[in-house]
Design brief:
There is one protein chain. The chain is mainly α. It has one domain. It is 47% helix and 0% strand. The protein has six helices and no strands. The longest helix has 15 residues.
Length: 114
C-alpha cells in the first residue's frame, strides 16, 4: 500500500494513553501478565486506551512465557498475530507509521508522495 492510498484513511482519535493494567489482570507464580503489560506499554508506545482489551488478552499468554511456562503452538501463533495487529513486528510497524529513534525527521520519499 503506498502512502497515497493512506491519505483518505481516517484514524480514530483517542486521547488517553494505554494506562495501567486492569485490576483483574493479576500476576502469579505461573503467569506474569502485569509485567507483560508494562513491557508492551514501554516497547509499543503508540498503544492507547482503545487497545486495552487486545493488550490484556495477549498479556495473559506473554505472562506465561515471562514466568517460564511452556506454551503451545497455538499460543505462540496467537501472540505473534496480536503483536502484528498492534504494529509490533518490523513489517507491521511500517504500516502504523512507527518511526525509528534518532534524528531521522526527514523522510526521503516525502518529495515523491507529498
Amino acid at each position: 500500500m503506498t502512502r497515497r492510498d493512506l491519505r483518505g484513511r481516517n484514524e480514530p482519535t483517542v486521547h488517553a494513553e494505554l494506562g495501567d493494567p486492569p485490576e483483574w489482570l493479576a500476576d502469579s507464580e505461573h503467569n506474569m501478565p502485569r509485567e507483560a503489560w508494562e513491557i508492551l506499554r514501554r516497547e509499543i508506545p503508540w498503544l492507547n486506551e482503545s487497545h486495552r482489551m487486545l493488550v490484556a488478552t495477549v498479556c495473559n499468554q506473554l505472562g506465561r512465557l515471562i514466568a517460564g511456562q511452556e506454551i503451545g503452538v497455538q499460543a505462540s501463533v496467537f501472540i505473534k498475530q496480536c503483536l502484528s495487529e498492534m504494529g509490533a513486528t518490523p513489517s507491521a510497524a511500517s504500516k502504523v507509521g512507527a518511526q525509528p529513534n534518532g534524528d531521522e525527521d526527514d523522510d526521503p520519499t516525502a518529495k515523491y508522495f507529498d
